[in-house]
C-alpha cells in the first residue's frame, strides 16, 4: 500500500467537486444532526436541573417521612444542623365547594407549608401578593388558600369564595401561577392547592394512618457536607425510614425520565443514521462505478488493491467528515436558535449552549456509521481484476471482501453497538435496538430480493397479456439494475418505526379509553378510618347500581433491607425499592388470589412476621421462599420471611398489593382502609356526593380521570417518538431521491427504446409511476409486518396487554410508502420522457 501516492491522487480527484456525493453528505448530516440535537436538548435540561437543583428541591437538603411527622428529637436534630428549616406536608384530598346537592368536588394535591416556605425562590400569585397575605388569616376569619388556575376554573371559583378541605373551610385568595419547588414533587393526580400546614389541624385529613408525606427542607451552614449530614442522621435514627435528597439531584424522577427518554430518542436517531447509511453505501457504489476506467488504469499500471482502497477511502473519509461537521453544526445550532421557544414550551429549566459531550457522541456515531457503510463497497474494489473493469463488469461482482476487512467490519459494528449501550445508560434497550435494526435490515434485504423475484415471475406470466404498462413496471422491478433494494431498505426502517409506534399507540389508547374503563372501578376511596368502614360499606350495599365493592386495610412502608443487606445494594434500579409501597394484611387469601409458590399462613397465626410477595417482583429481584424483607412502617422496622408468592394483576386498576403480611405482624399499627367501587357512570356523582358529605376526610380518586392523565402522558411520549421516526423517514426520502437520481440514466435509455417501439409518453410515465407505487407498497407492507410484530412483542412482553391489529394505522403506513416513492420517482421522470430516442441510442454505440 502506497499511502503518499493514494493521498496525492485523492486530492486531485477531489478537485473535481462534490458531484455524486450530495446524497452522502445530506444523509450523514441529517442523521448526525438528529442525534446531536436530541443530545443537546437533553444536556441543556440536565444542566438546567443541576443549576436549579436548590430551587427545585426547595433547599440544600430534604428529608421525607411517610405517614408521620418528625418526632420532637428528630425535629430538634434537624434544627441544630440547619441554618433554616422548613416543614411541609403533601397529600391528596377532595376540594369541596358548596353544600348538599349542588356541591362541587374535585381531586387536588394539597401542600401545607409553614411560615419559612419557600426557603429558595419565590412563589407567584395572581393577583400579586406575599405568601403571608395569600395563606394567612383573611378578613372573614378563615385561613387563606391558593389553587392552580386549572382547579379554580374547574370549580368555578373566584378570589373571595370559600372551599373546604376535609372539615376545614378556607377562603380562596389568589391563583397559584408559580410554585418554586414544584419540580421536586412526585406525580400527582390533581392540580395543586396550597395552604398553611397549621390551618389543616382541624381538617381531619392528617389523622393516624392517613396517607401523607412530611418533608423537611434544610438550608445548610457554609461548609457543611450534605453527605455527612445524611450519615449522621442514619447513625442517630437508624430506624426512621427517612428518605434523603440533596440539591445535586433536586428532581431525580424528572432527571431519570429525561435521561431515559433522551436515550430512547438517540437510539431512534441511530435508526435514522442507519437509514442514511444505506444512502451513503449507494452513493459510494455509484461513485465507484463511474470510476471503473480509472480503477482499471491504475491496476494496469501496477497499483495494488490496498493503494486503490486507500485512495477512495481517503476521498470518502474526508467527505464524510464534511457531512458529519455539517450535521454537528445543524444539531448544535437549531436548539440554540430555537432556545427562546423551547424554554417557553419546556416545563423544566434548561440552559441552551454548545455541549461538547453531546456533539462528540453524535460525531462518533456518524464516523462509525460512515465507516461501516463505505467499507463494504470499497473493499470489493480489491476483488475485481483490471480486465473485468475494462469490460464494464464492476457492478456485477458478487465476491465477498477479503477476510481481514470483513473482520474490521464486524468489529466496527460491535464498537457502534457498544458505544450506544455505554452512552445511552440503558444497555438492554441499546442492545435490543441494535438487534432490531440488524434484524430489520436482514428482513428488508430478504424482502427486497423476494419482491424482485416475484416481479420477475409475474412479468413473465401470461395473466398480464394486454397490460403492457404493468408488465413493464414489473420487468423493471425484477431487473438486476432496478432500485428495489435501496428503496425498500431506506423506506422500510423509517416506516417500521412509525408502524410500531402507531400500532402500540392505538393498542394503548384502546386499552386506556375502551377496555380499561370497562374493567376498572369507578372510584378509589382512600383514608377510610376503621370506625367509618361499616357505615361506608352499608351505603354502597344499599345502592342497586353498585355492582361490586372491594376493601383492604392499607399502610405504606419503605423496603430498607433484603436478606439483611441494604435494599439499594440488592436491587438498586428496581421500582419497588424507590419510594414507599402499599402494604396490606390478611388472615386468609383475598378472593381471586392465585398462589404460585408456598402457602398462606393459618388464620390464627401469631408467630414471626410472614409476607406474601408478588411473584413477578420476586423473580425480578431474585427472591424465593425463606428470604426476608425488612419494611419500615411509621419509623419502625418489620422483618418478614417470604411464605408465599402470588400473582398480582395491576392491569384492571383494582386493588393490588406487592406485599401482604399476616395480621398479627401489624397489630396496633395505625392504618386506614382503601376501597374500590364498581358502578356505572350515572351512579358516580350520587356516590361521591353522599360519601363526601358523610366522611369529609375520605379522598375519592375518579379512576376515569386518572386514566385520562395517564393517556395524556403516553400521548406525549408517543408524539416525541413519532417525530423522531419522521426524521428517520426524512432521511429515507433523501436516500430514495438518491436512488431515483442514480437510476435516471437507465430510465433515459429505457424510455428511448420504448419510444422507438411506439410507446407514448403517457404510457411510459404511467409505467414509471406504477413501478414507484408498487415498490412503495412493497416497502410499506414489509415495514408494516415487521412493525406490527415489534408492537405485538411490546404489548405482550412489556405491557402485558392484548394486541389488536389497527387497520387504519396500517393503511396510513402503506399509503405513505406509496406517496414517498411516487414523489421521488416522478421527480426524475421528466428527463427520460423529454429525451430524443435517436440521440440516446446513438450515444450507446
UniProtKB/TrEMBL annotation:
Keyword Transmembrane (UniProt): yes
Pfam (any one): FtsX
Protein's cellular compartments: Cell membrane
Keyword Nuclease part of the UniProt annotation: no
GO cellular component, one term: plasma membrane
Domain ABC3 transporter permease C-terminal: 268-380, 726-832
Taxonomic superkingdom: Bacteria
Membrane topology: Multi-pass membrane protein
Protein name in UniProt: Putative ABC transport system permease protein
Originating species: Paracoccus tibetensis
Keywords: Cell membrane, Membrane, Transmembrane, Transmembrane helix
Segments crossing the lipid bilayer: 20-45, 264-288, 321-342, 362-379, 400-423, 429-455, 484-505, 723-743, 764-789, 809-830
InterPro entries for the chain: ABC3_permease_C, Membrane_comp_ABC_pdt
Signal sequence, start to end: none
Amino acid at each position: 500500500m502506497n499511502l503518499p501516492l493514494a493521498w496525492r491522487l485523492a486530492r486531485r480527484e477531489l478537485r473535481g467537486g462534490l458531484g455524486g456525493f450530495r446524497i452522502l453528505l445530506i444523509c450523514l448530516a441529517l442523521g448526525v444532526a438528529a442525534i446531536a440535537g436530541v443530545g443537546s436538548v437533553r444536556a441543556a435540561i440536565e444542566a438546567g436541573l443541576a443549576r436549579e437543583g436548590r430551587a427545585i428541591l426547595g433547599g440544600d437538603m430534604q428529608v421525607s417521612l411517610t405517614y408521620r411527622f418528625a418526632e420532637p428529637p428528630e425535629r430538634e436534630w434537624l434544627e441544630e444542623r440547619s441554618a433554616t428549616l422548613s416543614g411541609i406536608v403533601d397529600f391528596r384530598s377532595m376540594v369541596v365547594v358548596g353544600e348538599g346537592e349542588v356541591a362541587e368536588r374535585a381531586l387536588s394535591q394539597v401542600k401545607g407549608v409553614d411560615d419559612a416556605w419557600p426557603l429558595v425562590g419565590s412563589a407567584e400569585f395572581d393577583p400579586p401578593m406575599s405568601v403571608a397575605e395569600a395563606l394567612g388569616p383573611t378578613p372573614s376569619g378563615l385561613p387563606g388558600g391558593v389553587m392552580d388556575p386549572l382547579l379554580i376554573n374547574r370549580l368555578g371559583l373566584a378570589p373571595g369564595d370559600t372551599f373546604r378541605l376535609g372539615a376545614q373551610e378556607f377562603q380562596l385568595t389568589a391563583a397559584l401561577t408559580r410554585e418554586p419547588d414544584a419540580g421536586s414533587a412526585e406525580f400527582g393526580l390533581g392540580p395543586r392547592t396550597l395552604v398553611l400546614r397549621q390551618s389543616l389541624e382541624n381538617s381531619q385529613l392528617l389523622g393516624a394512618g392517613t396517607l401523607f408525606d412530611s418533608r423537611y427542607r434544610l438550608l445548610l451552614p457554609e461548609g457543611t457536607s450534605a453527605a455527612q449530614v445524611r450519615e449522621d442522621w442514619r447513625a442517630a435514627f437508624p430506624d426512621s425510614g427517612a428518605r434523603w435528597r440533596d440539591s445535586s439531584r433536586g428532581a431525580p424522577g424528572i432527571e431519570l425520565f429525561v435521561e431515559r427518554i433522551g436515550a430512547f430518542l438517540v437510539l431512534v436517531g441511530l435508526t435514522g443514521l442507519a437509514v442514511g447509511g444505506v444512502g451513503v453505501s449507494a452513493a459510494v457504489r455509484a461513485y465507484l462505478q463511474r470510476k471503473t476506467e480509472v480503477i482499471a488504469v491504475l491496476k494496469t499500471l501496477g497499483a495494488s488493491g490496498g493503494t486503490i482502497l486507500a485512495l477512495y477511502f481517503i476521498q470518502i473519509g474526508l467527505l464524510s467528515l464534511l457531512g458529519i461537521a455539517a450535521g454537528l453544526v445543524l444539531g448544535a445550532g437549531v436548539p440554540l436558535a430555537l432556545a427562546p421557544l423551547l424554554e417557553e414550551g419546556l416545563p423544566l429549566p434548561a440552559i441552551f449552549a454548545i455541549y461538547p459531550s453531546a456533539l462528540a457522541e453524535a460525531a462518533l456515531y456518524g464516523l462509525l456509521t460512515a465507516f461501516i457503510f463505505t467499507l463494504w463497497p470499497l473493499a470489493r474494489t480489491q476483488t475485481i481484476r483490471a480486465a473485468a473493469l475494462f469490460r464494464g463488469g464492476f457492478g456485477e461482482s458478487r465476491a465477498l471482501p477479503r477476510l481481514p476487512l470483513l473482520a474490521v467490519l464486524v468489529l466496527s459494528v460491535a464498537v457502534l453497538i457498544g458505544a450506544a449501550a455505554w452512552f445511552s445508560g440503558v444497555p438492554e434497550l441499546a442492545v435490543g435496538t441494535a438487534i432490531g435494526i440488524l434484524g430489520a435490515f436482514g428482513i428488508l434485504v430478504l424482502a427486497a430480493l423476494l419482491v424482485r423475484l416475484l416481479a420477475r415471475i409475474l412479468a413473465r406470466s401470461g395473466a398480464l397479456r394486454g397490460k403492457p404498462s404493468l408488465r413493464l413496471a414489473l420487468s423493471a422491478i425484477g431487473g438486476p439494475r432496478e432500485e428495489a433494494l435501496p428503496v425498500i431498505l431506506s423506506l422500510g426502517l423509517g416506516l417500521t418505526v412509525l408502524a410500531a409506534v402507531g400500532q402500540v399507540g392505538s393498542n394503548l389508547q384502546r386499552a386506556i379509553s375502551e377496555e380499561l374503563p370497562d374493567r376498572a372501578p369507578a372510584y378509589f376511596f382512600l383514608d377510610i378510618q376503621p370506625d367509618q368502614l361499616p357505615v361506608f360499606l352499608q351505603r354502597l350495599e344499599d345502592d342497586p347500581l353498585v355492582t361490586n365493592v372491594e376493601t383492604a386495610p392499607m399502610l405504606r412502608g419503605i423496603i430498607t433491607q433484603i436478606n439483611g443487606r441494604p435494599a439499594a445494594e440488592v436491587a438498586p434500579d428496581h421500582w419497588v425499592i424507590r419510594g414507599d409501597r402499599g402494604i396490606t394484611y390478611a388472615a386468609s387469601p383475598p378472593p381471586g388470589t392465585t398462589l404460585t409458590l408456598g402457602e398462606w399462613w393459618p388464620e390464627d397465626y401469631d408467630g414471626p412476621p410472614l409476607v406474601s410477595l408478588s411473584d413477578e417482583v420476586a423473580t425480578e429481584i431474585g427472591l424465593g421462599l425463606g428470604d426476608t424483607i425488612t419494611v419500615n412502617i411509621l419509623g419502625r422496622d418489620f422483618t418478614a420471611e417470604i411464605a408465599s408468592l402470588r400473582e398480582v394483576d395491576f392491569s384492571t386498576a383494582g386493588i393490588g398489593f406487592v406485599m401482604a403480611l399476616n395480621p398479627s405482624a401489624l397489630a396496633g399499627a395505625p392504618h386506614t382502609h382503601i376501597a374500590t367501587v364498581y358502578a356505572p357512570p350515572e351512579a358516580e356523582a350520587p356516590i361521591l356526593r353522599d360519601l363526601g358529605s358523610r366522611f369529609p376526610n375520605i379522598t375519592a380518586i375518579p379512576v376515569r380521570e386518572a386514566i385520562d392523565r395517564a393517556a395524556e402522558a403516553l400521548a406525549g411520549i408517543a408524539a416525541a417518538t413519532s417525530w423522531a421516526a419522521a426524521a428517520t423517514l426524512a432521511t429515507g426520502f433523501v436516500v430514495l431521491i438518491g436512488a431515483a437520481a442514480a437510476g435516471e440514466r437507465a430510465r433515459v435509455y429505457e424510455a428511448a427504446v420504448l419510444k422507438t417501439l411506439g410507446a407514448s409518453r403517457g404510457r411510459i410515465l404511467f409505467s414509471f409511476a406504477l413501478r414507484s407505487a408498487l415498490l412503495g407498497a412493497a416497502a410499506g407492507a414489509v415495514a408494516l409486518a415487521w412493525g406490527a410484530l415489534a408492537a405485538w412483542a411490546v404489548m405482550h412482553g412489556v405491557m402485558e396487554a392484548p394486541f389488536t391489529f389497527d387497520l387504519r394505522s396500517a393503511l396510513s403506513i402503506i399509503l405513505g410508502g406509496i406517496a414517498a416513492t411516487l414523489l421521488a420517482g416522478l421527480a426524475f421522470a421528466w428527463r427520460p420522457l423529454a429525451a430524443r430516442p435517436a440521440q440516446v441510442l446513438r450515444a450507446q454505440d
